[in-house]
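Hey Z.,

So I finally got round to the flavin-adenine dinucleotide thing we talked about over coffee. Here's the setup:
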Amino acid sequence: MKKRALVCGAGIGGLSAGLALARIGWDVTVFERDEELRTAGAGLNLWPNGVRVLKELGLGPHYAAISASLRTYRTFSSTGEVVAIDDVSDWPERYGAALSGVYRRDLSRMLADALGAGRLQLGRRVVAVAQDGDTVSCRFADGGSAEGDLLIGADGIHSAVRAALFGPQALSADGLVRWRGLFDLADVEVDPHAAVEVWGAGGHFGYMAIGGGRAYWFAAADGITTEPDDARAFFSRWERSSVPAIIAATDPSTIIRNEIRDLVTPLPRWSRGRITLLGDAAHPMLPGMAQGASQALEDVRILKAALAEHEDLAAALDAYERARIPWVGNVVRGSRPLFDFDGQHERVASNCNPILGRYDSIAERRSA
Ligand SMILES: Cc1cc2nc3c(=O)[nH]c(=O)nc-3n(C[C@H](O)[C@H](O)[C@H](O)COP(=O)(O)OP(=O)(O)OC[C@H]3O[C@@H](n4cnc5c(N)ncnc54)[C@H](O)[C@@H]3O)c2cc1C
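And the result:
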C-alpha cells in the first residue's frame, strides 16, 4: 500500500513538497487554509539552487516559459555611480540554471497544476496535529480530519505545526519592512535581462523582470515602515538612478508592505516522530539574499532524497535534518547583514556587490 503524506500549507514549499513526494510514489494531499492559492506577493527572485529543484521535478521547460532569465547583475549607488556589472550569463553552465525572476502567482499556479487538483484541498485550515507510533493526523477548522504516515508542516512563518511540535517561538522584532511593487517593462527604460540593485545611504532598492513583460521592485529603508507614500517619496529622491522612473511607472495598488522577520533562536530540530517542517515554517529568513523560496525548494530536494533512500521514517527525517539545518543556518545568518544599509553602502563604495559576493559561499552547493 502507498505511504500517505499530509502537507499543511500550499505555498511554494508545500506545493513542491507534495509534487516531489508524489513523484516517488507517495499518496499526497496538500491542505491550504485559504480558499484560493496565494495571489499576493509580487515577484520572486529564484536562484539556480532553487531552479535546479524545479528542473529535477520535470518542470524546467514550464518554468522557462513563465519566468525571466537574467544575464547581468548590475549594482549602482543611489547617486548614479556604476558599482559593478557582473556577467551571470554563464550561470546555466556554471550553476545548472540561470538567475531568474518570476511572478509568484505564476509559480504557484505552475506547481499546483503539476501537483494536480485531486491532491490539493483549499479552505482547509489545520488547527491541530497528533500522532502515535503508526499514524499521524491533523484536524481542520471545518471539523474534518485526515490521517497519514507523515505530516509536513509547510505552513509558513507563523506555522501552527511548528508551534504544536516545539511550542511558541519568538520572531525577531527589529521592525524591518520590505516594500514591493510591479511595473511594466514597456513603461521604463531598463535592461530587461538584468537584475539591478541600487544602494544608498539608509536604503536599498532592487528590480528585475519576472516574465510576461512585467517586472517587480523590492525596497527597504531605515524608518520607512508604515506608509507606502513615504516609501514612494523616499525612493523618488534617488534622482540620479532609474529608481524614480520605476516608482512613477508603478501602479500604487500593486505596492505591498511586509514585515520581515526570522527566528530569534533557530530551531535545533525540525522533526518529532512522524511530523517535520519545511520552508519558512522551519527557517524563516530575512529576504536579504532572496533565498527563502530557493531554500524551501532545497528542503524539498533533500527530504525527497531521504525518503527515497530510507525505508525507516525516523532515519529519513534524521538525514533530512542533518543535511539541511546547518546549511540553511548559514543562509539565515548571511541574510541579516544586508539590512544594515549604511554598512552595505560602504561596501558598495568599494565596488563590491554585497549579494553576489555571498552567493557562492553561502547559498550555492552543487554537490548536495
Ligand atoms: C518581502 C519578502 C520578499 C521575499 N523575496 C524573496 C525572493 O525574492 N526570493 C525568494 O526565494 N524568497 C523570497 N522571500 C521568501 C519567500 O517568499 C518564502 O521564503 C517562501 O515563499 C517560503 O515558502 P513556504 O511555502 O515555506 O511558506 P509560505 O509561502 O508562507 O506558504 C505557507 C502556506 O501555508 C498556508 N497556511 C498557513 N497556516 C496554515 C494552516 N494552519 N493550515 C493550512 N495552511 C496554512 C498559507 O496560507 C500559505 O499558503 C521573500 C519574503 C518576503 C517576506
